[in-house]
Amino acid sequence: MNISQIISYWGYPDEEYDIVTEDGYILGLYRIPYGKIKNDNKAAQKLVVYLQHGLLTSASSWISNLPNNSLGFILADAGYDVWMGNSRGTTWSRKHLYLKTNSKEFWAFSFDEMAKYDLPASIDFIVKQTGQKEIFYVGHSQGTTIGFITFSTIPKIAERIKIFFALAPVFSIKYIKSPIIKMAYKWKSVIKSRMDIYMSQNPAGTSVQNVLHWTQLFNSSYLKAFDWGSPVLNLVHFNQTAAPLYNVTNMNVSTATWNGESDLLADPEDVNILLSEIRNHIYHKTISYYNHIDFLFGLDAYHQVYREIIDIIQGNL
């Protein structure tokens, strides 16, 4: 089933939009405007919560469990207007105004472009569509990375975010224990020739360049833009010869974070480096037995995380 069919299957209203980024990518944006549970709180009905998925997943990750354990459905039933984005290259965002999907040019992107173009286009569209000046943002994994970059580099988008909820936040990966990224780092040459074939069918897809971007950050305490491999190309993309660093201390958005001690991707040591740089940190929780995926599919995610997100939203109205 596609995302709309999953939403409808559980008896929820669904809306689907194609939005176009500044550089021509067409992204699938999904909406659950209200829940199945009758909610008399008309003010809460108008509050917008935007959900941004992580690496190799799509918006479907927010609605893949039963409704009482999927954040998308839980928020809709709590009276919120739920929107779910899809980054370029995922199953639901594989179109472009003029580039063919099987062209090299189409896939020449990493999370830099997701932060520079995809997220601003999605948020601008939602703000226009709903009339809400501020929205709540929930990101998981790479969805947090994109948020940190966008909100620290594009102030007009940051102003739209009431609270940033970061689940399993990934910023630097110096201490990463994930075998996937370690293997990718080791087998960079294989990735450049075969990865596109593997990725075309497996999970929800991303670009080879995006995976390579993550391998560039291996062993680094800093998050920086994709290094195009030569000073000349970097100059074309960034107006400087080296890939620029991203600085979270430039972000002035209220941020709540959750991480897992058993997380191989968002390693607790990397998370601690990140937490020391977040200026407006309103809440943090470490869950001792959580791994990277538990924030989406953990059977107690409602009690450990989702209920707290709703409590924080309600406490900030």
Walk me through this protein's architecture.
The protein is α/β, with parallel strands linked by helices. Helices cover 38% and strands 18% of the residues. The chain contains 13 helices and 11 strands. The chain has helices at 3-9, 42-46, 71-77, 111-130, 142-153, 155-158, 179-186, 188-201, 208-216, 231-238, 268-275, 294-297, 301-314; strands spanning 15-20, 25-32, 48-52, 81-85, 95-96, 135-140, 161-167, 223-224, 245-246, 255-260, 281-287. Strands 1, 2, 3, 4, 5, 6, 7, 10 and 11 form a 9-stranded mixed sheet that branches. The protein has a two-stranded antiparallel sheet with strand order 8-9. Strand 10 (255-260), helix 11 and strand 11 form a beta-alpha-beta unit. The longest helix has 20 residues, at 111-130. The chain is globular.
Topology of helices and strands:
Blueprint: H1 3-9, E1 15-20, E2 25-32, H2 42-46, E3 48-52, H3 71-77, E4 81-85, E5 95-96, H4 111-130, E6 135-140, H5 142-153, H6 155-158, E7 161-167, H7 179-186, H8 188-201, H9 208-216, E8 223-224, H10 231-238, E9 245-246, E10 255-260, H11 268-275, E11 281-287, H12 294-297, H13 301-314
Parallel strand pairs: 3-4, 3-6, 6-7, 7-10, 10-11
Antiparallel strand pairs: 1-2, 2-4, 2-5, 8-9
Helix pairs in contact: 4-5, 7-9, 8-9
Radius of gyration: 19 Å
Helix vs. strand class? alpha/beta
- Overall average pLDDT: 88
Series of secondary-structure elements, N-terminal to C-terminal: HEEHEHEEHEHHEHHHEHEEHEHH
Distance between the termini: 36 Å
Strand content: 15-25%
Report the principal-axis shape. globular
Uncertain runs = 197-203
Number of helices: 13
Major beta sheet summary: 9 strands, mixed
Question: How helical, in percent, are the residues?
Answer: 25-40%
Number of strands: 11
